[in-house]
Amino acid sequence: MAEFQPQPVQLSRVFYAPRDLVFKAWSSAEHVRHWFCPTGFTAPDAIVDMRVGGAFEVCMRGPDGADNWARGIFTEVTPVDRLVIDLHAMDDDGLPLFRAYTEVTFANTPGGTRMDVLQTYTLLKTLKAAPMVQGAPIGWAQTLDKLAVEIARMQQTAPTQRSVVHGAFHLQRIYDAPVELVYRALSDEAAKRKWFGGEEGKWQAIERFMDFRVGGRERAKGRWEGGMVSTFDAIYHDIIPNERIVYSYEMHLDDRKISISLATMQLKSEAPGRTTLMVSEQGAFLDGYKDDGAREHGTGFLLDRLGASLGL
Length: 312
What we know:
Blueprint: E1 9-15, H1 19-24, H2 29-35, E2 42-48, E3 55-61, E4 67-78, E5 82-90, E6 96-109, E7 112-123, H3 126-134, H4 136-157, E8 164-175, H5 179-187, H6 189-193, E9 203-210, E10 217-224, E11 229-240, E12 244-253, E13 256-269, E14 275-286, H7 294-309
Antiparallel strand pairs: 1-7, 2-3, 3-4, 4-5, 5-6, 6-7, 8-14, 9-10, 10-11, 11-12, 12-13, 13-14
């Protein structure tokens, strides 16, 4: 019988919270005890010393009352981008059953933070360890569900920071399409629905309307995987067909207003059948919300989807 060779576990999860908050959920025993265990388990004890060489140890207590320890050290700590933890699952005698080399990366994504987990296994006691490793994908999925709950708790209990941080960016795209077609994608509600929203399968529209005229309003409200609701509320201030659109908008995550922005879109007809679209935006990010470049990244994502929607 061939020896069981465990495959690495890879998971990705989007949390609708700033990257520093998601990273912080790994940083102390106080937080880790709330989430680092699968459904039906608790984590009554933990040691977290977030520095290279520092301990990361968690006791996971099962439904039968048995304690299952994972003991390891941080081998890489790069705030707020990456963590590497060299973990070992221990048996009842305090001896290692298997090694679980755990790599965690954090990246900005529209509306929040994408966290990727890669865990690679080395079996030390195959008979006992194999069933545990085989159940790791389900266990990790349940653990990340608990992490989402902990992050929501952290957001609710964090003291409100009254502040305004300003940011600006400029983007440009050249489309192989006439200016009239690009303008239609920006100004016609049916055409805009094709590109203005979250990634398919990760965002579900709840409410959409568009009154494209000076003084008119637009709203795009949707639910992201994980439950966070984002709302885009805009008002149009200046419209010159096929040339310029100026509007301001507020962004909400659930009931929290995170920003107010002024955006300008300028269109320029280039060679026959080609259009340059220039987007400039100035934003005020409110009360402790940290954008970290996510708005620029998200706008670029939308402009690329706009190009794809032209169907040329």
